[in-house]
């Protein structure tokens, strides 16, 4: 864990190194993924079966390609009632938040008499990737599937690897609650290729979202353009800005909630109180030992954790903007004053009673957020990722007479005579 | 040019072939582009100078790296007044249309007492790529730069190759009108890499948009994630749906306005009148001979043009959706009835007096639109491409008590104890 203070003589250099440190894997999987994609495109289902046998160690023709709806319903009905209520509450709140993101159409006539507008439509077919293994989270199913269904996606396809054929019933139950339409027992780059190109069994989709390992991420990147995708995702991160009046135990738990995700995760505390910084560091050390995720959390905190002491909390804000964190907690009495200074962050958690984890599950906003400083240019997953906009315009004779001559002049200046003629012919009649 | 009729026995097969035909270059430029990107990242300005000498045949240290603002102003002031007025009208109308795209922030408190919201901010630094040579269009400058400036981008950087040092004064004038902040005499994949990573001279940006050749497109694709980019662009296309009461000369000009762009462009007419189809085909042949762009238009029309006769216009609409065209003209008396059936199209031009070219220049909607069937999942360039959204939430003790237990239950079920603890600690106090 790195300790810095803005009053250190080498602070600028050390902080710049922290900002620019790359935690993302450099694994060169591009060539393997190209091979997998080409095989699936050319050979379809037989390539899918072969890669599944190789990587997931089961035979799709024995385990079954699709997971049947009766299985999801059984998983849903078999849930512990408290857990089912928790999933239902989360789903309801996520749907309510995303419902408000639905964009409005426009259709107006301007002073030149030109009708101008934009119409939004849902993507027709969407796919979501849900990892198997450690990161098989029902909350990921809800966060990817619900915005798609709120948008109006007609066919929502989930793909998920089932190593040795096993699948997490919580994931199935979440898919049932979220309204997924199909689930396929396929993972890895081959699943992304199947969704992008379609195979004999699996019909193609138009957009693919959802988390995955380096192969999945690279497959999405390579197929970007063939299909739409959500943002390229990297390791998770949290920045907490906290004054000395917080309970150090609470802040330590917040930092660890990010560290326990993955050894590449990052947790950073800014505080204006040096002794509070020490107390949080001690509380982190104490709490780590009590976690079933201790090994991951310890690796992450040791390698990527940081505590930075500033003269006051406001001094932290431009530094936070340089980090453009995925998650930002503002734990103080007047979080709004700090929030007004935030320009680059995926999601912000205001005040002492808003731990980041509340947003991972039940608050409502999406937990799929831009990582690795991408909040400078990217947003969290939303209904807009599952919709697209068609612009439209309509001229009558008078409107075309008003604006047409300028189009003719510009088309001629650009050396495009058929453009000019298509307008000019309609001006002379 | 392909002639089809929905009454042909082989229509389904022939139309499917048309839908699936790939007009995009398969040039394998990925390796070259990887090399260029790595050189620029590692060596900065010296790599830029070397690639510019190699590809654009001039020495940046002699011609100058930046084009100075005095040069843009001179280009603007030297414009023919009619052309200046046309550019100004276009800029004003484009700005007015895009102004309405600015998204609203939200900030509400729900029934559980949870404050939930979203706040939009402009991207801070954006870059636009403007090609040199045949496609050096001032309209592209307006269509890329104005949405950025309407969004609130603080620093808008234009890069453009100047083969042998020459640049189109119309492009400079358009940059001046649109409010561009910097112009660099750099093009190709090396310009995209410079914008993404920054060099000694050129500071990095957060988002890059704008058209380009296969190298530029591949560089954007490879750097997607390091920066934000607009959609992957392919050859341009138009679909015209027209009844027999149109002037065949008008419709022929509309088809050719797409064909003249590039040999890979595509123009398709759907009509319910076979003799009108013949008259349009004849008019196309006649008009091509009169164009300064005849060679390109002829190649494109011969290779990729199509006329499809349907029983009635409504029969065309599901076929149009399968093509998901970049541009769609509906030239008939009641275009709204057809438009109501359109789901996948980049931009729609309604009625007999709305040639597509009016939208290329002065109508207001963006002319950067999804090509190659990408209207199934992508939208035209907009203010949203230059903004990003930060979600936020705030709980007080009561709100956390209402929704916190569900988060604890889900975190425990996912095996993430620090997540659970960060919420649970705040529930017991």
Explain what you see.
Two copies of one chain form a homodimer. Chain A is α/β, with parallel strands linked by helices. Chain A has three domains: 2-23 and 234-363, 3-Layer(aba) Sandwich (Rossmann fold), CATH 3.40.50; 30-229, Rossmann fold (3-Layer(aba) Sandwich); 395-428, no CATH class. Chain A has helices at residues 11-20, 30-43, 45-56, 60-63, 69-77, 81-99, 138-151, 169-178, 188-197, 214-223, 248-259, 274-288, 294-304, 313-323, 335-339, 356-361, 397-413, 417-428; strands at residues 2-5, 106-109, 115-122, 125-129, 155-159, 182-184, 207-209, 228-229, 237-242, 266-271, 306-309, 327-331, 347-350, 387-394. Chain A has a six-stranded parallel β-sheet, sandwiched between helices. In chain A, strand 12, helix 15 and strand 13 (347-350) form a beta-alpha-beta unit. At the A-B interface, helix 6, strand 3, helix 11, strand 13 and helix 16 of A face helix 6, strand 3, helix 11, strand 13 and helix 16 of B. Strand 14 (387-394) of chain A pairs parallel with strand 13 of chain B, so a sheet runs across the interface. Chains A, B: Substrate binds at residues 236, 258, 261, 327, 360, 414, 419. Chains A, B: One of its GO terms (biological process) is L-histidine biosynthetic process. Chains A, B: Keywords: Amino-acid biosynthesis, Histidine biosynthesis, Metal-binding, NAD, Oxidoreductase, Zinc. Chains A, B: Its EC number is 1.1.1.23.
């Amino acid at each position: 864990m790195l300790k810095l203070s803005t009053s250190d003589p080498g602070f600028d250099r050390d902080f710049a190194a922290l900002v620019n440190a790359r935690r993302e894997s450099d694994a060169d999987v591009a060539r393997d993924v190209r091979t997998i994609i080409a095989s699936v495109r050319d050979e379809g289902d037989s390539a899918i079966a072969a890669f599944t046998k190789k990587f997931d160690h089961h035979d799709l023709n024995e385990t079954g390609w699709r997971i049947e709806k009766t299985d999801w319903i059984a998983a849903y009905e078999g849930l512990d009632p408290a857990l089912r209520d928790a999933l239902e509450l989360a789903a309801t709140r996520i749907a309510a938040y995303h419902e408000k993101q639905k964009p409005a159409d426009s259709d107006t006539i301007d002073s030149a008499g030109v009708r101008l507008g934009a119409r939004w439509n849902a993507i027709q077919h969407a796919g979501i990737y849900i990892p198997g293994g450690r990161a098989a989270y029902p909350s990921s199913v809800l966060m990817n599937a619900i915005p798609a269904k709120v948008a109006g996606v007609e066919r929502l396809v989930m793909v998920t690897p089932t190593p040795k054929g096993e699948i997490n019933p919580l994931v199935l139950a979440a898919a049932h609650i979220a309204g997924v339409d199909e689930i396929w027992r396929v993972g890895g780059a081959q699943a992304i290729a199947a969704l992008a190109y379609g195979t004999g069994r699996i019909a193609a989709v138009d957009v693919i979202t959802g988390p995955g390992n380096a192969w999945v991420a690279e497959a999405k990147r390579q197929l970007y353009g063939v299909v739409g995708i959500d943002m390229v995702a990297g390791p998770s991160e949290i920045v907490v800005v906290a004054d000395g009046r917080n309970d150090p135990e609470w802040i330590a738990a917040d930092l660890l909630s990010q560290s326990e995700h993955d050894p590449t995760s990052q947790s950073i505390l800014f505080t204006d109180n040096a002794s509070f910084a020490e107390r949080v560091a001690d509380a982190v050390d104490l709490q780590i030992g009590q976690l079933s995720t201790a090994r991951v959390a310890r690796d992450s905190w040791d390698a990527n954790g940081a505590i930075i002491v500033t003269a006051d909390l406001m001094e932290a804000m431009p530094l936070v903007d340089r980090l453009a964190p995925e998650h930002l907690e503002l734990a103080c009495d007047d979080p709004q004053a700090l929030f007004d200074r935030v320009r680059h962050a995926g999601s912000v958690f205001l005040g002492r009673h808003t731990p980041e984890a509340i947003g991972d599950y039940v608050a409502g906003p999406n937990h799929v957020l831009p990582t690795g400083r991408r909040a400078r240019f990217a947003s969290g997953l939303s209904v807009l990722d599952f919709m697209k906009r068609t612009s439209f315009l309509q001229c009558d004779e008078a409107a075309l007479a008003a604006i047409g001559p300028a189009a003719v002049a510009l088309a001629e200046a650009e050396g495009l005579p058929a453009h000019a003629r298509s307008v000019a012919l309609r001006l002379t009649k």
